[in-house]
Model the fold of this input.
Amino acid sequence: QKEVEQDPGPLSVPEGAIVSLNCTYSNSAFQYFMWYRQYSRKGPELLMYTYSSGNKEDGRFTAQVDKSSKYISLFIRDSQPSDSATYLCAMSAGGTNAGKSTFGDGTTLTVKP
Amino acid sequence: DAGVTQSPTHLIKTRGQQVTLRCSPKSGHDTVSWYQQALGQGPQFIFQYYEEEERQRGNFPDRFSGHQFPNYSSELNVNALLLGDSALYLCASSPALWGNYGYTFGSGTRLTVV
Done:
């Protein structure tokens, strides 16, 4: 079983919809949580990072972390066709493992005009 | 401001050969990490370099080795290539000790082993 599980989708929504993307994890040492967006034939682009539990908002994006449930989410409000991409969650434990991130396999999102 | 640059963008090699991939980190970043991304999967951590030393290593065999130069650029070397080494190789950079807060990734080198 993988340390980080992510529903691969694909997920298809109409423009303007609220999108919810989720990951679960098994390693309780994870403290840092990140979301990346990856367009086809490109490298991942960091969208948001969160330390420990709680919420963080940046424009149309909101990241939530529930460490007690080992569950993280990314919400996209007012989704746009340009949001169509693969979304990757990533986590790291910090300390001696600082910088080593464990990724999910990504969820493919299509936003239809 | 240039981001992370990787070369070459595509490469085709034969089984058993050796390959070297190159990376220049984003300006102001001194830590470089390498990831392997197979088709349909998330990136997997290979190793991280800081101050010209390998600081951390993922679950990859010794056929994978690297180097960091004084200007912070880095190379990834893979010996005795296997078909299973075909993947997108991503270089990521960050300021020292900030890797936990996310990386800046390059667009990758697509390696095909035939």
In short: The CA atoms of residues 88 and 110 of chain B lie 4 Å apart. Chain B has a mean pLDDT of 94. The longest strand of chain B covers residues 87-94. Chain B is about 0% helix and 50% strand.
